[in-house]
Amino acid sequence: MSANAAASPVNTEGIDYANKIRRNLSPAQLYEEALRYEAGTAISSTGALVARSGAKTGRSPRDKRVVEEESTVDDVWWGPVNKKLSEESFAVNYERAANYLNTRDKLYVFDGYAGWDPKYRIKVRVVCARAYHALFMNNMLIRPTQEELDNFGEPDFTIVNAGQFPANRFTTGMTSSTSVAISFERKQMVILGTEYAGEMKKGVFTVMHYLMPKAGVLSLHSSCNEGPNGDVSLFFGLSGTGKTTLSADPQRLLIGDDEHVWTETGVFNIEGGCYAKTIDLSAEKEPEIFDAIRFGSVLENVIYDEHTRVVDYTDKSITENTRCAYPIEYIPNAKIPCVGGSPKNIVLLTCDAFGVLPPVAKLTPAQAMYHFISGYTAKIAGTEEGVTEPEATFSACFGQPFLVWHPVKYAQMLAQKMQENNVNVWLVNTGWNGGAYGIGNRISLKYSRAIIDAIHSGELEKADYVNYGVFNLQIPTAVTNVPAKVLDPSQAWQGSAAEFNGTINKLAQLFQANFKEYADRATPEIIAAGPQL
């Protein structure tokens, strides 16, 4: 047990910690516990802890619930993202989780912070029965100093993870044996029926996505880095669009790879670590991420050589959604503390499976709002249960599964921030070029990197632009180290002109149909900024 275990007692209603609490253990201690007690756990050849998440290898968005409570009922954007759960059903799930945890011989508790800005950070406590989960959250939350732990006190939010134990499908509001439920009033999250650690990470983000706008600051599903002159860039994009990869730039300091808040003074990272996809990872393509997989990191659901323990990152036999969680300081050019000034550039990343959106376009303020609210991309295999090939999807604010307020609230706050700080906004497609998925090719990572470099160097601010029809986008005629043909999808298209026109019109119709949901709260300028048929 760690030295600070007696600093302030852990009191989590209904959970018996007597003689079995493992509180704020070091990574080395958590390794020992995981290797000793958790089947399928190993140490990779580079020193990372290899863990298995069981049957669930991705998030389960259909099983997420938010408790309908008097204090928050008018704030929450109810619907497919935030499905209502009664206070009674939440209490049943909590009791079920507590009862399960009370049968365990060992309980792990980790106390950490969400948010690098002391003015806005919250104290989070994780209670779980797997050392893997405790180490994961040790990496993903901000690790307190010993003095901070000694004075930690009561948490602002508690995650009760009993993921090895199923929900009762006969409990009102359950649709499967998996349940991820949040109560803002009780300041608790309860996990049943899934051992996928990413549920905890995104649960914390959902909580911050509610609390930060309530405090008047903007929470964002984005990565963030800072150039040598202090210029900050935000990268928006769903899983698989290149958000983590493109923000890990050796020429720039990494502020964070996934979750940020934009305040009156600048931006701060919510997390203390990174959660990178590792499928097809190589030292050549992504050296910073590759080298971060060492002692203290957690590798999930990967296949390795039984003798050498060398991981085969190309092996998808468990899942395509193989991942690694590591402390942010494992990235050599991470900026600690993870805070920066107000952004100069915003990059909206999309992975277009139709092959008709340009690799880069400069957006007007109205177009920026339109594409931010639309959040178009393609779901990439492995990120969620049941997705085996890319499919077109719209995810408001490039993070719809984690929104708590209505998308327009976040969009209006972003518009205000953009106006106050005179920000450049770019649409960058890292998806297909030369044809749709199955015909064309994924845009080369080196081209995407060259485009980002051209944004940061100021090259694209001074470039010549031509209008790209239907979507009415401004696309550059040239970008250093990117073939001109690639920049214009109509030129790169391998099929007939009729096929191209049919495909771009089809995508435009999908955009228009999707935006109808938000048209009643969007201005005429924003609506007009979308594709025109």
Offer a few descriptive terms.
single chain, 533 residues, alpha/beta, nine-stranded mixed sheet, eight-stranded mixed sheet, 14 helices, 30 strands, 26% helix, disordered N terminus
How far apart lie the N and C ends?
65 Å
The count of helical stretches stands at 14
Overall geometry comes to globular
Radius of gyration: 23 Å
Low-pLDDT stretches? 1-6
Percent of residues in helices: 25-40%
Strand proportion, as a percent range, falls in: 15-25%
Oligomer: single chain
Q: Would you count the extended β strands for me?
A: 30
Average pLDDT level: 94
Q: What structural class results from the helix and strand content?
A: alpha/beta
The main β sheet shows up as: 9 strands, mixed
Describe this structure in words.
A hairpin with a 4-residue loop joins β29 and β30. α1 packs antiparallel against α3. The protein is built from 14 helices and 30 strands. The relative contact order is 0.11. The protein starts with 20 loop residues before the first strand and ends in a 5-residue tail after the last helix. The protein is globular, with a radius of gyration of 23 Å. With 533 residues, it is of the alpha/beta class. 26% of the residues lie in helices and 24% in strands. Strands 11, 12, 13, 14, 15, 21, 22, 23 and 26 form a nine-stranded mixed sheet that branches. The protein has an eight-stranded mixed sheet with strand order 1-6-7-8-10-9-4-5, with helices on both faces. A five-stranded mixed sheet has the order 2-3-17-20-16.
What's the gist of this structure?
26% of the residues lie in helices and 24% in strands.
